[in-house]
Amino acid sequence: MNILILGSGGREHAFAWKIKQSPKCKRLYIGPGNAGTGLIGENVSLDPNSFPEIGDFVVSNNIDLVVVGPEVPLALGIRDYFKHRDDICNVPLVGPDKKGAMLESSKDFAKQFMVKYGIPTANYATFNQMQLGQALDYLKQQNTPIVLKADGLAAGKGVVICNTLEESEKVLKEMLLESKFGKASSKVVIEEFLSGVEISVFVVTDGSSYKILPSAKDYKRIGENDSGPNTGGMGAVSPVPFADESFMEKVEENIIKPTIKGLKAEQLDYKGFIFFGLINVNGNPMVIEYNARMGDPETQAVFPRITSDLVDLLVGCAQGTLDQVELTIDPKSACTVVMVSGGYPESYQKGLSIEGLDTPTDNLIFHAGTSSQDGHVITNGGRVLAITAFGNDLTSALRSVYDTADYIKWKDVYYRKDIGQDLLTMINKTLETSAE
Ligand code: AMP
Q: Residue 414 CB: number of other CB atoms within 10 A?
C-alpha cells in the first residue's frame, strides 16, 4: 500500500514509525513531516489544510490510505472534501467528517451530545455575546472555582479556570467582548469545576465497532509539579496505574458505548480516533473533553505498546471492517518526555544545532519541531523531540527515558524532570495501604 500521513509533529513521527513496520506498507509519504519522518518515509511539501493539493497528490501517487494527524483539517472537512471529489471518493481516509470533528471543534456541540446520550460530564451552560447579562447572572449562581471554555478550536489554550467570581466575570467579558481567543470565544461554555486525576483514553472506531487503545496520562504544564502555563504537552505515561479493570469497565459502559451509539444515531461519518479526556471523580470517570484525533505526546507513549499491525487497524477503521481486526498490546510501561526549546511556550529560538542524536540507544526518539540543514538536525519549533522508553515497570521506564534525554543537547534545551512522579507516589501509597 502507498500511505500518506498528514501532519508534522511527534504524533505523526510515531504514526510513521509504526506504519513502516507493517509488511503491507510499500511507500510512505508524510506531508509535510519533519526531519525524523524524513528518515522513515518521504517528506512531501503538502499543507494539511490545502485539500485540492492533497487530492491531486493522492491521485498522482496512487495513495491507498490517508491518515490525518492534526485536528484542523478534520474541522475544515477533509473527509467531506474527499467524499465529494469523484477521483478520490473511494480512497480510505482515517479521520471523521466535519460534523463528527465538531466533538472537538465545538465544546458546546460536545456538551449537547454528552447530555443527549447520557454521558457523565460536568454541569454547564453556553452563552454568546448577546447573552452577556444572562451569563453574568449564571456565574453569580455558581460555586468557584469555575471553568470558562472558548467554544471553538484555540490550540489547546481556550480553557480558563477561575478561582473567584470577580476573575470569572473579567475573563468572561474578555472572551465574549474582546475576542480573547479570537472567533473561538464568540461563544463560551461555563462549566462546573471537577476535581480528580485526569486520564486520556483512546478509541479507534469505524462508526460502529471500536477498539480501545492503551490509556495514558499527559502532562500539559511547562513547569514541574504542574506549574506555569499550558503547553502542547510535556510528557506522557502509559498505562495509567489507577485505570484498572473495574475503572476501564466503567469507562467502556458509561462513556465509550454511549458515545459510539450517539455517533450512529446522529449519522456522523466517524471513521477515526476519539480521544476521551477523562477525570476520575471518586472512582467514576467523567468526560472533560473529546478530541477527534490522537493526542500528542500520548501517541508517542501509546503506539509503541501496540504489538499488532497498525496498518490493519487503520484500514479496518477507514473501511468499516474494524470488527475483523486484532489489536494486541504490550503490558510493559512506556513513558515519553518532551524536550522543548528554552522559552517555550512563549518566544524561543529556532535553527539551533541538536547534538547527541546519533548515540546508540534502544529508546525511541520522535521528532516534532525539527528540520534538516546540510545533513544535520536543527530545532524548528517549541516542542522539538519526544523520547520514549519502555520498562517492566514505570520506575525503570522513567530511568531509561531520562538517561537518553541527558545526552541530547542544544542551547537552552528544557524538559520536565518529574514526568510520572505523581503516579509513582500514587502506586507507593496504594502499596503502603495494602501492606497495613
Ligand atoms: P480541555 O481543553 O477541555 O481539555 O481543558 C484543558 C484542561 O483544563 C483539562 O485538561 C483540565 O485540566 C482542565 N479542565 C477542563 N475542564 C475542567 C473541569 N470541568 N474541571 C476541572 N478541570 C477542567
A: 16
